[in-house]
């Protein structure tokens, strides 16, 4: 009997050291799918086709959107969003949410999620400020210096993308999560409404109004020790641009679709901790997409490409038995989503 017990314990410990994969999706759902016919149903359809473990949603318009979406996703999907009239950001998952870990900032929400394998991740979903979009300034011929372009990233009279990321980076829960990322990996995903400083380089200035720009939102993410999963796998930006903006917005509507809309990579999945990306790709379904203004009957319901990264958990350098680990997972409570009255 003693031998059997030891073998069972060894098997349990080894199981927690084996590699496990997790598929993460960031998906701007374009005002809850309202711009295409049956948009919310199509959002659910494409999430199910991708079959991710965790999804970060942006542009969740109303409190009734998430319950409807979860109903169409079915079991075992659960989700959470902010409790604002305009929730904007939501997290949905097939796994168990650790409810006491819920955190929010002005432009993000976070939840620890325990996978069926027993692994836990700290997941942050962000949607940064959309105003004063940087590439518009960079492609404006009246702009003569870099400070003019960057003025929209950290404006004086409102919170821009730089302030959004500073708030996230300085939040006590984020600081704690980063400090413990060697035990519980951190994944930060979402729509930054900003290009990456890794993309706007000397090699690509011809595509960017002849500007090289150190975009502060992605620089702050980098300073947090986070790694851009897509660019890690595709480091040559001249070969793989990875533009997530836009599937259908190719020309500016205000000029009767005669002026090109700048295309860029503005949706990201960052990580820190003992996971490694093994694949990362854009997704827009399999059917042809009609650009604006002929988009109403598109099958894919968003003006952003979704970004999907699949990670593999890496065993720690010395596999620590669970009873000796400094991290203990509390009791898991399901998170049924209840709309506000």
UniProtKB/TrEMBL annotation:
<dbReference type="Pfam" id="PF03372">
    <property type="entry name" value="Exo_endo_phos"/>
</dbReference>
<dbReference type="GO" id="GO:0003824">
    <property type="term" value="F:catalytic activity"/>
</dbReference>
<dbReference type="InterPro" id="IPR036691">
    <property type="entry name" value="Endo/exonu/phosph_ase_sf"/>
</dbReference>
<dbReference type="InterPro" id="IPR005135">
    <property type="entry name" value="Endo/exonuclease/phosphatase"/>
</dbReference>
<keyword id="KW-0732">Signal</keyword>
<feature type="domain" description="Endonuclease/exonuclease/phosphatase">
    <location>
        <begin position="25"/>
        <end position="304"/>
    </location>
</feature>
<feature type="signal peptide">
    <location>
        <begin position="1"/>
        <end position="19"/>
    </location>
</feature>
<protein>
    <submittedName>
        <fullName>Endo/exonuclease/phosphatase domain-containing protein</fullName>
    </submittedName>
</protein>
């Amino acid at each position: 009997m003693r031998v059997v017990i030891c073998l069972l314990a060894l098997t349990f410990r080894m199981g927690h050291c084996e590699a496990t994969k997790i598929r993460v999706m960031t998906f701007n759902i374009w005002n809850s799918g309202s711009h295409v016919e049956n948009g919310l149903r199509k959002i659910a359809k494409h999430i199910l086709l991708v079959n991710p473990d965790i999804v970060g949603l942006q542009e969740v318009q109303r409190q009734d959107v998430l319950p409807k979406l979860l109903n169409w996703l079915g079991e075992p999907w659960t989700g959470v969003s902010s409790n604002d009239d305009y929730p904007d950001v939501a997290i949905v998952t097939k796994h168990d949410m650790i409810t006491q870990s819920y955190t929010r900032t002005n432009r993000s929400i976070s939840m620890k999620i325990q996978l069926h394998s027993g692994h836990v991740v700290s997941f942050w979903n962000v949607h940064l400020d959309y105003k004063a979009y940087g590439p518009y300034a960079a492609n404006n011929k009246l702009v003569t210096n870099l400070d003019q372009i960057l003025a929209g990233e950290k404006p004086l009279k409102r919170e821009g993308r730089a302030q959004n990321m500073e708030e996230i980076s300085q939040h006590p829960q984020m600081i704690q999560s980063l400090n413990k990322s060697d035990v519980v990996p951190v994944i930060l995903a979402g729509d930054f409404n900003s290009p990456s400083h890794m993309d706007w380089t000397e090699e690509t200035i011809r595509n960017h109004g002849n500007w090289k720009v150190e975009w502060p939102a992605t620089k702050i993410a980098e300073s947090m020790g986070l790694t851009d999963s897509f660019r890690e796998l595709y480091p040559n930006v001249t070969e793989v641009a990875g533009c997530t903006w836009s599937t259908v917005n190719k020309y500016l509507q205000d000029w009767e679709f005669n002026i090109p809309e700048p295309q860029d990579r503005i949706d990201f999945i960052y990580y820190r901790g003992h996971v490694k990306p093994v694949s990362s790709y854009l997704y827009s379904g399999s059917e042809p997409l009609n650009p604006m203004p002929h988009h109403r009957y598109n099958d894919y319901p968003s003006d952003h490409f979704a970004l999907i990264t699949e990670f593999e958990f890496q065993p720690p350098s010395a596999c620590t038995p669970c009873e000796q680990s400094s991290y203990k997972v509390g009791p898991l409570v399901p998170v049924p989503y209840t709309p506000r009255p």
